[in-house]
Amino acid sequence: MLLLKCFGLFFGLVSGAQYSFTPVEQAPLYLSPEEFAVPNRYIITLKNNVGKNQGQFNQHIDFIRSLIKITNFQQSEVINFVEKVYDNVFYGYSASLDKSTLDFLRYSEDIEYIEQDKYMELDDVQPDSPWGLARISERDNYTPASQFNYNPNWGQGVNAYIFDTGINTTHVDFEGRAVFGIATPPLETERDCTGHGTHVAGIVGSKTYGIAKKANLISVKVFFCNGTGLASYFIAGINWALKDHELKVNEAIKNKKQPPKAVANASITSALSKTLNTAVENAITKNMFIVKSAGNRSTDSCNYSPASSGLSLTVGAINRLSQKGVYSNFGKCVSMFAPGTAIPSTFVGSTTAIAHLTGTSMAAPHVCGVAAAIQSMSGANPYDYGTLRKMILDKATKDVVLFPNNTANLLLYAKDFVK
Questions:
Q1: Which residues cross the membrane (predicted)?
Q2: What is the pLDDT of residue 59?
């Protein structure tokens, strides 16, 4: 085996680095369900004491890169490589690893656990009629006469990070407030090829179809143009967004200006993942309130991530009759419901394109928009995630959702936040 042949050479290369291995205990390895599993790709989470020590963190990254050089030696193609390094959302990295390299790496005492990378899916389905905004201003059922009550300054001073397929930033309804942040899949451009991210961003904060009509919308593209996404790319997006927000806050303080606040939307689903949930929860504790969609499989959302993470809000969808959408996931991991069927919003194809989409992907940004609205009224400092979560849940309309299927019967309500 190549690893064994190179064993002595490897330790010669990394002599002086402090690595400890044990012949018995390996780091835990969590494999993904076959439907979501990405072959030979893994997310490695380092122990906190390693990650927080810059020297130890750098030593481990040098170690894995040296190991990979050795394991790729004499092979006809490059199989092993490090792709993303995480130094904010948590400490670790994603890598492509063959079985022998993976087995060897698991002996490193720097590693907390390893999880197989996962495919992600977008939580929209398809097809008609503007009603979502008006519904969250009504305690009773929606009628054609219902109107959206809002504060025109909602979202002022808030950056909303949209983890999705990109945003059509030239759309006139964004009024120049939508910008490209980063694309984490390799070789991807800022273009939104599917329209999903543009539609989501429009619900959060576009002029006509949005809730927080003064929010800045930042595109964090975590999907390829064909709609394929990986958990490791989503985590890289969160890692970037946290650093971007920290940079913006520090710049504002330096210039003696009001620091921006941050919210985020993740209308995506993958298999149950400790790593994904940890990434979302760590971001939330760092003042980035992430709202998640429940998923569109009409099953228990506790079986999926990031919907099953507990700190923020997971949102199921209703239709115009206040019925749980037949597609919407449900269960104790769903925090509340919001409009999700036939929601109009901004789209791709032109600077004025509009589409009606259906899914929990459309429900979550209603809640994200309300979160942005509330944060814009918090004064000098943002509400912490516990306070913000409680405010949204406490004001929700109770017991109006039909057929909630063992889910908290709470429907988003925004009118009480109008000031």
A1: none
A2: 95
Domain coordinates in residue numbering, the chain: 23-117, 123-417
Q: Please enumerate in sequence order all residues whose Cβ is within 8 A of that of 54, keeping only pairs 6 or more positions apart, or say none.
A: none
Backbone angles phi, psi at 96, to 5 degrees: -95, 125
Tokens at residue 52, please?
């927080």
Q: Which of 32, 96, 108, 196 is catalytic?
A: 196
Which tokens belong to 241? 């967004």
pLDDT of residue 137: 81
Cis peptide before 344 (omega within 30 of 0): no
- Would you say 276 and 270 are in contact if contact means Cβ atoms under 8 Å apart? yes
Which CATH architecture group holds 23-117? 2-Layer Sandwich (3.30)
176 Cβ contact partners less than 8 Å away, ≥ 6 residues apart: none
Catalytic residue flag (residue 196): yes
**Tokens at 191, concatenated:** 């273009």
| Structure confidence at residue 18 (pLDDT) | 53
- Give mean pLDDT in consecutive 10-residue pieces for the chain, a chain of 419 residues: 42 46 78 94 96 94 92 77 94 95 94 96 57 80 75 96 98 98 96 97 97 98 95 98 97 96 97 96 95 97 96 94 96 97 96 97 98 96 95 97 95 88
Please give the backbone phi and psi of residue 97, each rounded to the nearest 5 degrees, phi first: -140, 135
Q: In the prediction, which pLDDT does 321 show?
A: 93
∠87-219-363 over CA atoms, to 5°? 105
Whole-model pTM? 0.89
List Cβ neighbours of 392 (8 Å cut-off, separation of 6 or more): 313, 336, 367, 370, 371, 374, 412
164 in active site: yes
CATH superfamily label, 123-417:
Peptidase S8/S53 domain (3.40.50.200)
Taking the chain, what is the end-to-end CA distance rounded to the nearest angstrom? 69
Residues 6+ apart with CB under 8 A from 143: none
* Given the residues 124, 164, 173, 244, the one annotated as active site: 164
**3-state secondary structure at position 305:** strand
173, 361, 366, 376: the catalytic one is 361
The DSSP H or E segment spanning 103 is helix 99-105
> How many other CB atoms are found less than 10 A from the CB of residue 126?
9
Q: Are 229 and 256 in contact (CB under 8 A)?
A: no
Catalytic residue list contains 300: no
